[in-house]
Amino acid sequence: MQELNTNSRYLHEEIVTYAKRLTKYLPEPLSVVYFCCTGSEANELAARMARAYSGGREIIAVDGAYHGHTQLLIDFSSYKHNHPGYEPGRGDHASVVSMPCTYRGEHRDPATAGKLYADEVQQAIDKIHAKGEKLSSFFCEGIMSCGGQIMLPEGYLKNVYKHVRDAGGLCIADEVQVGFGRVGTHFWAFETQDVVPDIVTMGKPIGNGHPLAVVVTTPKIAKAFAKTTSYFNTYGGNPVSCAVANAVLDVIEDEGLQEHALKVGEELLAGYRQLKEKHIIIGDIRGTGLMLGLDLVLNHETREPATTIAGEIIHRLKRERILVSQDGPHNNVIKLKPPMCFSSDDAKLLLSRLDFNMTEVEKKYGFAKK
To answer: Model-level pTM?
Structure first.
């Protein structure tokens, strides 16, 4: 910073180095990098790109998803626009399809759920065409975070991407919360679905708390976007932020954090399964790596959400200086998305305190032992 502080209008060794390093983790033809400051900025920019390329305005997203806090993003993020008291509701050019959940959703057979949920996207496209509009894009995380750590059923994105591309739209993978090795099995969550998006957005972990975000797309889409408008960002792509990003990537690589996430995540999942054998309030376990959720229920047959109980357990843990969160459409999912340095010892402590506090809460609310 003593040498030079500039923005993405001007090249600097740090920005070029990082762009080259980052794109090595992405499949071809994703190779053009745009820098910004937040995940919301990244998703807003991705939406603009898709509209410029496709000539359409309509955006499809998944129920329960959160893609950012700008007005455009809130328009199609039902996690926000369905909030009690938010009067504008869903935006005029936004369509929302069912969350592809095999535990609570309409389609629960893993063998067929991916295709059946994807069929809803085709139905949404048909409705868009029926009103004389054109699709611009489909937004989706590889694992739904605010939706309650939802693992997409096999084949979901493959089928959806075909429907979207056949309609002239672009497929946007939101990796703001789930990227950079967190899922353990892959570096990007979209890779768990064996697809290649047209645009990938990144934020949060890219700077490990430093305000930095990125959009990566193809040369073809970038060229179409450049014909319609120019893009630069006063702070995005500055040398300090890019130095931070390079340092974060160094740590991910040098400390093997993706492999670490897989290992500790498997230990946690094994512990969660043991807890489920013991605690009747655990309805479903889901996730991978260090992106895990416990869906708490009052009744296993009806799957009635145990929202109050989830909240009480979270606050009990907070008093013990253990931070987890409460999410999902019913706010009944105990969500674990810790720093990627979260250790095996940390996992053991969490499992022990979950066990204790679940036992106490079950006693309080009169649940019978399993």
So the answer is: 0.95
